Amino acid sequence: MTILKVLQYPDPFLREVADEVQASEINDALRKTINDMFETMYQESGGGLAATQVGIKKRFFIMDGSEKKDQRIVAINPEIIEEKGEIIDEEGCLSFPGVFAKVKRAEWVKMKALDENGEVFEMESDGYLGRCMQHELDHLNGITYFDHLSPLKRKMIEKKYKKVNQD
Ligand code: NI
């Protein structure tokens, strides 16, 4: 397996809107990339990682909300098909190391996607994974969690981010 480079804000690639994955692209090469992404995410202690973040302009992401990091979820061409409520909670992102901010999200979501074998599945969550689905799906549309913050809050976090990440 290979540890991939996770792009960091303000890398312009994080603004790219990813393309749909074609059925013919759900193959061993993609599954190898997915394994590399899991390896990368576990090494960085993340809970989710979108293809965009590793420089791939395709609509898929991975996540694992378990403590033991043994519950892999792969979502290809994901769509949120239902959502309810609103909830504010703290969020971080591997593309924004060292900073966290409270972000408003739907409280409950239902997602439809393909798994790594091309099978359709649905999943719903009102917890960590629900938040994760919304966050990762945003990445595939070129949106980061910074975009959900008020201008003032964003300025504050950006300042902190620069400070934390300067060499
Ligand atoms: Ni992220």
Compile the SSE list and pairings.
Elements: H1 28-43, E1 48-50, E2 60-63, E3 73-84, E4 87-91, E5 101-105, E6 108-114, E7 120-125, H2 128-140, H3 151-164
Antiparallel strand pairs: 1-2, 2-3, 3-6, 4-5, 6-7
Describe, in plain words, how this protein is organized in 3D:
The protein is of the alpha+beta class and 167 residues long. The chain has helices at residues 28-43, 128-140, 151-164; strands spanning 48-50, 60-63, 73-84, 87-91, 101-105, 108-114, 120-125. The strands form two sheets. A five-stranded antiparallel β-sheet has the order 1-2-3-6-7. A two-stranded antiparallel sheet has the order 4-5. Strand 6 and strand 7 (120-125) form a beta hairpin. The two termini are 29 Å apart. The relative contact order is 0.18. The site of nickel (II) ion has 5 residues, from helix 2.
Gist of the model:
The chain is α+β, with helices and mostly antiparallel strands. It is built from three helices and seven strands. Bound molecules: nickel (II) ion.
Q: Which secondary-structure class do the elements indicate?
A: alpha+beta
- Ions, cofactors, ligands: which are bound? nickel (II) ion
Largest sheet: 5 strands, antiparallel
**How much of the polypeptide forms β-strand, as a percent range?**
25-35%
Secondary-structure element series: HEEEEEEEHH
The radius of gyration computed from the alpha-carbon positions, rounded to a whole number of angstroms, is 15 Å
Mean pLDDT, all residues: 97
Give the distance, in angstroms, between the N- and C-terminal Cα atoms. Answer: 29 Å
In terms of per-residue confidence, which ranges show pLDDT below 50 for 5 or more consecutive residues? none
Number of helices: 3
Number of extended strands: 7
Q: How do the strands of the widest beta sheet line up side by side?
A: 1-2-3-6-7
| Fraction of residues in helix | 25-40%
Shape: globular
